[in-house]
Specification:
Radius of gyration: 26 Å
Strand content: 15-25%
Oligomer: single chain
Structural class: alpha/beta
Number of strands: 21
Shape: elongated
Number of helices: 14
Bound molecules: ligand PMT
CATH superfamily of the largest domain: CoaB-like
Strand order of the largest sheet: 12-11-8-13-16-17-19-20
């Protein structure tokens, strides 16, 4: 929930300052207000004008500005922020804060704040592993501060190891999660996502265009809101989300079996995947050779289990959410699936419309249940995930 939130971004002096500019841009895209405080060291790397332009706010650099309006800058900034993020956070600034030193605007704002403080450390590996730095971080963690673990790799100084500031998109996700209400705490949610693949021989398979974006968005949103999430995913190009029980499968049968292991104890099952309904009847252990195919190559198919239909019959208190991917007669077909598969509600998307269905970051959906239909405009899949979860949790509460 970063929209309309106020983030105080403390930028300290390290080469990762350039990444902080990207971080501001990513936060602005989420409609977050960002107030940047730069330390003297950071201004050696990047001019404040960069952050002023990116944040669309004046950049705060000194304790002793001429007073333009009657408020004390460090106090008003400390009160204004929903969260203080220090990225990149140097060993020097971490050390000062851990030991109560407030000798510049950033450290003074931190000292005057009672909000959450998040550090994204960035420094040389030896510095990062130094017992003094580690002890300072532990001390701050014990006091309730948060640390976003740095990545490993080749550092700007030429060394290899831990110390690269976390990627801006991961930092945004981290603070988004911290600021989100945990209204799904204690809930167990299964999400299926992506395509399944059905092998023909060791080289070939049949599949579909699902990228997994819809299902992954739902899984991430549910996790952010405190649910225990199991994401059962076919092969996609997406990163396995953090803090989620991620289960990789290939075939529809494997997806069916994995859902079976978790279904009984779950509260909500969301079937955003596009499982193949059919699979080749025979699997050839050896690659099928072109010259063995005389006239034409005919492939015989057999049916895969219909996962949603099976668990629609099995369900007791679980909420079952389905999707309908259609290229024609969207609502009629979705209504049929709602009944046949015993979904609590179904999310219908027309895969032939631009901006909807497979691969895109957006979708255009109608939600249908026994009481009627709601149409939505084109929205980011991340926004659609919120709508789906809000509805599922409302039905779950009404049931219990
Ligand atoms: O992954 P993206 O690129 O982001 O694309 C998103 C999406 C288009 C895949 C997603 O929004 C979507 O519509 N998913 C459902 C795709 C699908 O298989 O629809 P269907 O109408 O064929 O199936 C109806 C429902 O039954 C679905 O919930 C499906 O998961 C489920 N099903 C289908 C076949 C099967 N053997 N078992 C199932 O459980």
């Amino acid at each position: 929930m970063l929209k309309d939130k106020n983030i105080i971004l403390g930028v300290t002096g390290g080469i990762a300052v350039y990444k902080a500019a990207d971080l501001v841009s990513k936060l602005k895209k989420k409609k977050t207000n960002v107030e940047v405080i730069m330390t003297e060291g950071s201004m050696e790397f990047v001019n404040p004008l960069t952050f002023q332009t990116m944040s669309e706010n004046p950049v705060h650099t000194t304790m002793f500005n001429k007073i333009s309006k009657f408020d004390v800058e460090h106090i008003s900034l400390a009160q204004k922020g929903d969260l203080i993020l220090i990225a990149p956070a140097t060993a020097n600034t971490i050390g000062k804060i851990a030991n109560g030193i407030a000798d510049n605007l950033l450290t003074t704002v931190v000292m005057a704040s009672n909000k959450r403080i998040v550090f994204a450390p960035a420094m040389n590996t030896c510095m990062y592993n130094n017992p003094i730095v580690q002890a300072n971080m532990k001390k701050l963690e014990n006091m309730g501060c948060y640390f976003i673990e740095p990545g490993s790799g080749r550092l700007a100084c030429g060394d290899y190891g831990a110390g690269k500031m976390a990627e801006p998109e991961d930092i945004v996700e981290y603070i988004d999660s911290l600021l989100t209400d945990k209204d799904l705490l204690g809930k167990d949610i299964i999400v299926t996502a992506g395509p399944t693949i059905e092998p023909i021989d060791p080289v070939r398979y049949i599949s579909n265009h699902s990228s997994g974006k819809m299902g992954y968005s739902i899984a991430k949103e549910a996790s952010k809101r405190g649910a225990k999430v199991h994401l059962i995913s076919g092969p996609t190009l997406l990163k396995a989300p953090k803090d989620i029980n991620f289960i990789q499968i290939n075939t529809t049968l494997e997806m069916f079996e994995e859902v079976g292991k978790l279904f009984e104890s779950c509260d909500i099952l969301i079937k955003a995947a596009a499982p193949a309904d059919l699979k080749p009847k025979e699997y050839s252990e050896k690659k099928i050779k072109k010259n063995n195919i005389k006239d034409k190559f005919l492939l015989e198919f057999t049916e895969n289990p219909d996962i949603a239909k099976y668990y629609g019959k099995e369900k007791t208190n679980q909420i079952l959410v389905g999707f309908a991917a259609e290229s024609n007669d969207l609502i009629k077909n979705a209504e049929l699936k709602l009944k046949n598969k015993n979904f609590d509600f179904i999310v219908a998307n027309d895969i032939s419309i631009k901006g909807a269905g497979f691969k895109t970051d957006t979708n255009i959906i109608s939600i249908i249940d026994d009481y009627g239909k709601n149409d939505y405009p084109i929205l980011e899949k991340t926004e659609i995930a919120k709508i789906i979860l809000d509805k599922a949790i409302k039905i779950l509460k009404n049931k219990s």
